[in-house]
Amino acid sequence: MNSQQKPTGDPASAATVDTVAGGKLATLRKNPKGWVVLVIAIAAVIAFFGAAAGGGFGLWSWQAGLGALPWTGLAAIIALLVGIIGIVLDRRKGRKTRWPLLGLGMLISVLFLGYMASYLITARSLPAIHDITTDLADPPQFSGLKLREDNWDNIPGADDDGMRGMNPRQRWATVHQDAYPDIRSVRIDQPVAEVVEKAKRLAEDRGWKIVNVDPASGHLEATATISLFRFKDDVVLRARAAEDGAASIIDMRSVSRVGVHDLGANAKRVRQFLSDLSGTTTAATQ
User: Fold this and answer.
1) What per-residue confidence (pLDDT) applies to 116?
2) Which pTM does this prediction carry?
3) Rounded CA gap, 18 and 47, in Å?
4) Fewer CB within 10 Å: N-end or C-end of the chain?
5) Helix residue ranges per DSSP H, 31-61
6) Distance CA 262, CA 253 (A)
7) 168-198: per-residue pLDDT in tens?
8) Phi and psi angles of residue 142, each rounded to the nearest 5 degrees, phi first
C-alpha cells in the first residue's frame, strides 16, 4: 500500500497571507496621500542621520555628508506640501481627510524642519569662526597637537568697513570678542598642579582623548569627538601661578579641526568646562 504525500503548503496560512496583503493594499489605495507623506517624512529623517553617521564612520567624506543634509530638508518640505495640497483638495471636493497617517507624516516633517532650522538660526546668529579662547592676545599654544594649517583662512569681516586693513588674526579677535565677550580667563584658588590634575579628570569624564598633560608646567591637551559626524575638536588648557602659587589663572582654547563655522560648539565647551573646573567661575583680573 503506497503512502500518500502530504501537501507541502498550508492553504489556511496562504489564505491568511493573502488576506493581510490584500488588506494593506486596500489601505494604501484608500489613503495614498497619507502613506506618501509619511514615507517621505520618515525617509528624510533617516537620510539626515544616515548621512551624518556615514560621514562620521568614514563611509564617505564629511563634506559629502553635509552636502546631503539640505536635500533631506527639501524632502521634508515636499512631504509637508503634499499633505497641505491633499487637505486643500479634500476640502474643495467635499471629501473627509484621512488624518492618522497624513497627520503623523506632516508632524514628523514639521518637527524635523524645526530641528534643522535651529541649526540655521545658530549659524546666522554667530560668526563663522572655529577657534575659541579665553585669551585673545596670547592664546594657549598646542605642543602635542598641531594647529590646523588653514586656521586663519576664511575669517569673516574682510569686506567690512569697520575691519578694513585688519589681518585675519585681528579680524578673528574682533568678531570673537563681539560674539563671546563672556569667554575670559578664570582664577581658581588652587595651585597649578592641582588644577591641571582636576582638569585631566574632567576631560576623561567627558570622554576626551588626553594627548599631553604636565601638571607641573600647567599644561593639558586633549581631543573631543562630537556629533554623529564625529568631528574632532582640539583643546588646550594653560594654568599659570598667581598669588605666590596659592591660586591659578586658567586659560583655555578649543579649535575645530575641520569646517569654517563651529555653530558655537567650542564656546559652549569652554564655558562648561571652566565652570565645572572652578565650581563657581570667577573672571580673572589682569
Assistant:
1) 95
2) 0.81
3) 32
4) N
5) 32-56
6) 14
7) 999 999 999 999 999 999 999 999 999 999 9
8) -80, 145
Q: Residue 73 has which C-alpha cell?
A: 530638508
Bridge partners of residue 133, in order along the sequence: 253
Helix ranges (H only) for 126-191 are 168-179
Residue whose C-alpha cell is 527639501: 74
What is the residue extent of each domain of the chain?
A: 11-125, 131-278
The contacts of residue 65 (CB under 8 Å, 6+ apart) are 51, 52, 54, 55, 56, 229
Q: Give 205's contacts (C-beta < 8 A, 6+ positions apart).
A: none
Confirm if 227 and 56 have CB atoms less than 8 A apart.
yes
- The set of cell numbers assigned to 167 is 589681518
CA distance readout (Å), 137 to 55, 74, 97, 134, 225: 36, 43, 63, 9, 27
- DSSP class of residue 210 equals E
CB-based contact 282:248 (threshold 8 Å):
no
Q: Which CATH superfamily is domain 131-278 in?
A: Kinase associated domain 1, KA1 (3.30.310.80)
